């Protein structure tokens, strides 16, 4: 077939997702993979990539990791899975990855896709009045207008995340008397529109309190819908009752086989009591182990070292995870201490630009870089370990340098970066060149 009759070079370079990504495609592999020119296209079968850079091990000198070994490979993808990892074949009819480093696609594990100013004219955060309850009053005024375009804005946010190498997010979504279930429904529309290029899990989030603004009936209805977690926010300062709020949240999660993810900003005695009470409830209801998270949990950064170790051990034993946006300044979270005790630690952008915060860039690789800087993870080995903040704890090499990702059968969620290894990617916040989600070329 003469492809020059069907598509001009100019149109190919302008429209092809692979061309935009900096990857090249031969005419034969174009035919084999049936790649279309929009972000929702599927490979509809097999995708073959050559000159893919993968990490293969560590290089040591006097017992210290001084470099990361890599090599080029041929990767076959079929039906959204990695089918085969083979020695490189430069003459193969395949997408040329040009030696870019392939890593697990990034995951943002704490974001609010349902309410944002993103895509609007710039506006900074206004002075807060009345603390979190004052912000709740502000939201009650803002949400009706935000809901009018929330589906469109969520899709724009997803495109931003795509550009930063992220193809999956855990998104909190407002469930409260002002929005009722509309915020959830609008976000679900956006996710349906992006389902071939983006995955998500949803948290039914009572931003205005469970009881303070009586979100109970709406939470109960949301729990019957396609959501994954029951959320919460500051049980003591918002609802005025730690036990009552946690008990309700735990029971609702148990009744509908959901997880739990609670925002906890309280940094004093009430914050610590909330952490300890939630740990007790999870230990009583072991079905919630591995499915329960505390977001932010600033109180951990206020404890002395001995208490941090004690709580970290309890969290690890109960399999309660922490999702941190990695704050810095006067408050430094004890994330390495948590990880030492086996606590699952995730990160995310939280707000990109909204009435709460305007600092989100959309990049969790940037969060991994911040983590490395804050906690002195400057060596080749420690930088490579810091990548797990961007990938939700998936690393190409284990701590001994054994290759553990990718393997045949893994989901084909892949990001390609202009970096020699993951340590460089974290340290330099390397440029994202291409993204694949479930075998579908995103860009």
Q: Work out the radius of gyration.
A: 23 Å
CATH class of the largest domain: Alpha Beta
What coarse outline follows from CA principal-axis ratios? globular
Coarse structural class: alpha/beta
Helix content: 25-40%
Write the CATH homologous superfamily of the largest domain.
Answer: Metal-dependent hydrolases
* Major beta sheet, strand line-up: 6-7-8-9-10-11-12-13
What proportion strand? Answer: 15-25%
The tally of helices reads 16
Main β sheet profile: 8 strands, parallel
Second rung of CATH, namely the architecture of the largest domain: Alpha-Beta Barrel
Mean pLDDT: 91
Strands, count? 16
Q: How many domains is the backbone divided into?
A: 2
Low-confidence stretches: 1-20, 26-43
CATH topology of the largest domain: TIM Barrel
Distance between the termini: 26 Å
Domain Amidohydrolase: 246-442
Enzyme class: hydrolase
GO molecular function, one term: hydrolase activity, acting on carbon-nitrogen (but not peptide) bonds, in cyclic amidines
Keywords: Hydrolase
Description:
The protein is globular. Strand 12, helix 12 and strand 13 (345-346) form a beta-alpha-beta unit. The chain has 443 residues and is of the alpha/beta class. Helix 5 crosses helix 6, helix 10 runs parallel beside helix 11 (305-318) and helix 14 (380-386) crosses helix 16. It has 2 domains: 3-99 and 403-441, Urease, subunit C, domain 1; 107-362, TIM Barrel, CATH 3.20.20. It has 16 helices and 16 strands. The strands form 3 sheets. It has an 8-stranded parallel β-sheet. Strands 3-2-1-4 form a 4-stranded mixed β-sheet. A 4-stranded antiparallel β-sheet has the order 5-14-15-16. 35% of the residues lie in helices and 23% in strands. This is N-isopropylammelide isopropyl amidohydrolase. Residues 246-442 form the Amidohydrolase domain. One of its GO terms (molecular function) is N-isopropylammelide isopropylaminohydrolase activity.
